[in-house]
Amino acid sequence: MKKLMKKKQQKKRVLQAIKIAVGSSAAIYVAEVLNLEYAISAGSIALLTLVTTKWETVKLSWFRLVTFLVSSVLAWIVFTQIQSEWLAYGIYIFLIVIVSEEFGWRATISVNAVIGMHFMAKRDFEASFVFNEFLLVLIGITVAVVLNLFYDYAGQRKDLVRNMRYTENRMQMILGAIAAYLADKEMQYDIWAAIRELESQIRIFIDDAYEYQDNTFQSHPEYYINYFEMRMKQCNTIHDLHYEMKRIRKMPQQALIISEYVLNMMDYVTERNEPTAQMDKLKEIFQHIKEDKLPTTREEFESQAMLYHILMDLEDFLVYKKRFVNSLDDKQKQRYWNQGK
C-alpha cells in the first residue's frame, strides 16, 4: 500500500507540473499573439492560479477580477501623486495588503503586486493600457480555469473506494488481533505499530477526499470525507481500547465473551453496515457482566473494571458508525449504497 500511495503521489506531482507548464506557456503565447505588453506576466498569473483546486480556481479567478479594479484605482491614486518609485510602490503594496486581508483576498496579493509594477513602470493610466493589464489577468485565469477542468474524477473516486476497502481490511485485522489477546492468545504482530500506521494512512486518505471534493462538481462529494473522518475516530477508539486492554494483569473469564463478540463484530466493519444489531448485542453483554458474580480480589476488581472500559470503547466505536449512517440522506444511500433502486 505504501508503494502504491508513493507512486500515486509521484504521478500527481508530474501531472500537476505538466499542467502548470502547459498553462503558463499557453497564457504567454495568447498574450503575445494579442501583442500585449508584459505578455510574460500572463504566464505567472496562470501559474499562480493553477496551483489551486477547481473550486478554488473558480473562486480565486473571480477575486482576481474584482481586485484588479481595486488595484488599478489604488495604483492611479498612489503613482500619480508620488514620484519616488520605492516609496510609491511601498505605499501601494501596503494598501493592497490591507484591503486584501480585510476582505479575505490574500491569495490575490501576488498578482496585484505584479500589476502594480507595470503601472508604476509605465505611469500610464489610459484606457488602452488598463485594458492591456486586464487582458493579462483574464488570459491567465481563463487558461487556469480551462486546464483545471481536466480532472480524473473516475480515477480519483476509484482510489478513494480502494482506500475505503483497505481501511476496513486493516481494522478487521487489528480487531482480530485484539480478540485473540482477550482470549489470552499470543499476539501475532505489534498492534500499536499497526494502529499508528493506519492512523497515518487515514490522514492521507482524508486529504485525498478533500481534494476530490474541491475538484468535483458532482453532488455529495463530502461523503468520502465524512467516511474517513469516521474511521479515524474509530481508529482512535481502538487505540484507547488497546491501552485499556494492556492494563489488565490477569484476563478474567468474561474476557472470552468480549473476545467472541469482537470476532463477530469485525466482519461487520464495512462501508454499508448499519451497526444496530451489534449495538443491541453489546447491551446484552453489558447486562450479562453486570449480573455476574462480584469480584473477590483487588486484582479481579481492577480487571473487571478494565473490561467495562473496553466495552465502552467498543460502544463508542459503533456509535461513530451509527452517527455516520444517520447523517446520510436518501439520495446519498441511493448513490453510494445502491439503496432504493
Report on this model:
The protein is mostly helical and 341 residues long. The protein is 79% helix and 0% strand. It has 13 helices and no strands. It has helices spanning 2-33, 40-50, 54-79, 85-103, 109-122, 127-148, 153-182, 191-214, 222-246, 254-266, 276-291, 298-327, 330-336. Helix 8 runs antiparallel to helix 9 (222-246). The longest helix has 32 residues, at 2-33. The mean pLDDT is 87.
Element layout with pairings:
Elements: H1 2-33, H2 40-50, H3 54-79, H4 85-103, H5 109-122, H6 127-148, H7 153-182, H8 191-214, H9 222-246, H10 254-266, H11 276-291, H12 298-327, H13 330-336
Number of DSSP-assigned strands = 0
Order of helices and strands: HHHHHHHHHHHHH
Mean pLDDT: 87
The radius of gyration is: 29 Å
Give helix % range: over 70%
Number of helices: 13
The quaternary structure here is: single chain
Major pleated sheet: none
Report the end-to-end length measured between terminal Cα atoms: 34 Å
Return residue spans where pLDDT drops below 50 for at least 5 consecutive residues: none
Structural class: mainly alpha
The share of residues in extended strands comes to under 5%
Shape: elongated
